[in-house]
Structure formats: C-alpha cells, structure tokens
C-alpha cells in the first residue's frame, strides 16, 4: 500500500502531547512539540505553515480525540467537514455553515486513496495545505485533522463497507465502480474518529451526499448529516479542486455543463417531457465537444429513475469530460 499511495514525506506537527483547549486559555497559537508522528505518505506539511497559522493541526487519531474530548467536556457542539483539501470557496461555505450550527468546526483533509481507481488522479490530486490552513483560519475553523494514509489504513487493514441503494444508482458508480465504497469507508472512519454532532457535505457531489445519508442511517451513526448548496463561479461553473486541470480554452467552455442543466430544468418546468428535456441538454454538451458520461433525471432522494414529472422531487445529475478533466454537476428541478 505504501508504494501505491505516495512518496515518503516526513513532517512534524502538534501531536499527542498537545494540550486541550482548557489548558490553553488565552492562547490559540499552535506549538510544535517534537515529531509526533512519522508519516511515509501524503502531503508535506511545511513546519512554517504549522507555526505561522493560528489554528491547530493534528495528524493522529489520539490527538484528535483528546482535543475533541476537551471540547465535549465543556458542552461544545462539534461539526465535521470532511474534505480532500485543495480548498476553495465551496469547502469554506461548508465550514461557515458549520460555525453557524456549532461552537467548534473540524475540517478533515485526507486525499483518500480508497476512492480513486488505479487509473485516476490520486498522485496528481492537488495538495495545498498551507493555503488550506489560511482559508480555514480565516473562516474561524477550530482544528484541522490531516491524517496520513498509514493512520487511516493501518498495517493489515482488512475491512470494507458494501454500499448499495443510492451508491448503485447507475450514475457516478457506473464510471467509478469502487468510488463510493472508498468514500463510505473513510467517512465512516471519520465519523468514529471525531464523533461530531453533525457533518456537512456539499450538494455539489449529490450522489455522495445521498450515499452518506443512507450509510449514516443504516449504521446508526449518532450524528446529523447536513448539506449545503453548490458554490459556483460567476459564469455558473461549480467550484471544484479539479478545475485547475482545465486548459484556458476548456475553462471557457466548462460553464456549459451548468448551462445545459439549467436549460433542461427550465424545459421540464415548462412541461417538456423529461426525456426530451434531457436530450436537449445532452445535445448542447455534445455539440460543445464534451464527452457526456451521463445526463439524467432522478428522484432527488432515492436517485432512482423518474420518467414523469410529478412522480417525486426531481434532480438532474450530469458528468461530462472536457479533455482530461471530468466535471460533475447537478441541479434541482
Ligand atoms: P472534496 O474535497 O472534493 O472531497 O469535497 C469536500 C466537500 O466539499 C464535499 O462535501 C463536497 O461536496 C463539498 N464541495 C466541493 N465543491 C463544492 C462546491 N462547489 N460547493 C459546495 N460544496 C462543495
């Protein structure tokens, strides 16, 4: 697993010796207390980033639990925002929402190898911890949990979560068959590690949101799942860490995905049959040179196909490739 998942990058950070907040009265600046953990994979955390920021980062579950236990003892509610880092305003909107609901917000940053297929961009996935820390700090985040791969997948790791229902809706799962099992596994671990009062997920990854809601219900996780709307560029393109892969000319065409969804939604609202409205959207994307993976109308909860408007709340979901970049988006009808 080590060789598969990354390069050897040791780093130091606040570790198990970190004091809980109750002993840190009047001081929020983090302190390095020696090398708490030796990590052979994942991102480099420049010591300067840790020292310079007015927000703490922990990398091991023990330190995370110690910190959260201190907050819990004083009755502070905790919200969790799971991310893969390379943060943008979409992620930060989740953090801001968390801070409206809870005194404490923990942002996890983990590029989860289990949700990438071997052909996908795990190694190349953007990593920008220093910038992420600054954004989290500016949005009043309280703690960053950035485990390395070995922390999440200990030697001998042998457990999987089998997901069906919304995870087998024939959307993302058709093109990324192992993706949601990987997502569910890491999200379940994060729920157990943090035991937050709630966790927040973006509607941007709508199928993922439904998979997580289903899993939390099925496995009796004692927390609430909240969601937040998709944050977009002014031209409609949904913010995504992967948008940086778009060449300038592709970036100019990328908002057409949102435009196509919007046109199909309007058509359905005007009474155009769903199948015809979807054809309109698909044709628009094909003409603009997108390779469309799917462009579908689904029941907004079960993600099952819906043929007729009025058969339930509708959501349009789409994925399309522009060059080497795969974009996903969705819109309520
Ligand atoms: P990621 O880092 O891509 O795994 O995303 C972490 C969380 O941020 C997920 O719940 C995403 O749905 C959410 N997210 C990503 N992009 C956006 C966006 N443009 N607007 C709102 N939430 C987003």
Give descriptors for this structure.
Rossmann fold, Pantoate--beta-alanine Ligase, Chain: A,domain 2, 9 strands, binds adenosine monophosphate, globular, 6-stranded parallel β-sheet, alpha/beta, 333 residues, 2 domains
Task: Tell me what you see in this structure.
There is one protein chain. Strand 8 (314-322) and strand 9 (325-332) form a beta hairpin. The protein has a 6-stranded parallel sheet, with helices on both faces. It has a 3-stranded antiparallel sheet with strand order 7-8-9, with helices on one face. 35% of the residues lie in helices and 16% in strands. It contains 12 helices and 9 strands. It has helices at 2-5, 47-52, 61-73, 89-101, 129-138, 149-152, 172-175, 179-194, 206-218, 248-253, 256-269, 274-287, and strands spanning 56-58, 78-83, 104-109, 143-145, 198-202, 224-228, 291-299, 314-322, 325-332. By secondary structure, it is α/β, with parallel strands linked by helices. It folds into 2 domains: 2-228, 3-Layer(aba) Sandwich (Rossmann fold), CATH 3.40.50.620; 241-332, Pantoate-beta-alanine ligase, C-terminal domain (Pantoate--beta-alanine Ligase, Chain: A,domain 2), CATH 3.30.1300. Mean pLDDT is 87; it is low at 1-44. Bound molecules: adenosine monophosphate. The site of adenosine monophosphate has 17 residues, from helix 4 and strand 5.
């Amino acid at each position: 697993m080590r060789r598969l998942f990354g390069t050897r990058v040791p780093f130091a950070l606040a570790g198990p010796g970190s004091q809980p907040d109750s002993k840190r009265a009047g001081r929020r600046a983090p302190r390095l207390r020696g090398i708490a953990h030796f990590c052979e994979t994942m991102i480099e955390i420049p010591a300067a980033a840790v020292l310079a920021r007015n927000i703490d980062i922990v990398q091991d579950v023990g330190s995370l639990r110690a910190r959260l236990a201190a907050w819990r003892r004083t009755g502070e509610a905790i919200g969790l925002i799971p991310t893969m880092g390379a943060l943008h305003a979409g992620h930060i909107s989740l953090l801001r929402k968390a801070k409206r609901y809870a005194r404490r917000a923990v942002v996890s940053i983990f590029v989860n190898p289990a949700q990438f297929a071997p052909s996908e961009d795990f190694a190349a996935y953007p990593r920008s911890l220093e910038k992420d820390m600054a954004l989290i700090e500016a949005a009043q985040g309280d703690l960053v949990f950035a485990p390395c791969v070995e922390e999440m997948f200990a030697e001998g790791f042998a457990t999987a979560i089998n997901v069906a229902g919304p995870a087998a809706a024939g959307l993302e799962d058709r093109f990324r068959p192992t993706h949601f099992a990987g997502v569910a596994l890491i999200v379940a671990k994060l729920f157990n590690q943090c035991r937050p009062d709630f966790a927040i997920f973006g509607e941007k990854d709508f199928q993922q949101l439904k998979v997580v809601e289903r899993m939390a219900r099925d496995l009796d996780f004692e927390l609430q799942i909240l969601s937040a709307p998709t944050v977009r560029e002014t031209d409609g393109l949904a913010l995504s860490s992967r948008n940086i892969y778009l060449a300038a000319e592709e970036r100019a065409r990328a908002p057409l995905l949102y435009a196509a969804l919007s046109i199909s939604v309007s058509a359905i609202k005007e009474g155009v049959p769903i199948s015809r409205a979807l054809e309109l959207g698909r044709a628009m994307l094909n003409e603009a040179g997108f390779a469309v993976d799917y462009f579908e109308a689904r029941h907004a909860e079960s993600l099952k196909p819906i043929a007729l408007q009025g058969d339930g709340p509708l959501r349009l979901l789409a994925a399309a490739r522009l060059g080497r970049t795969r974009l996903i988006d969705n819109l309520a009808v």
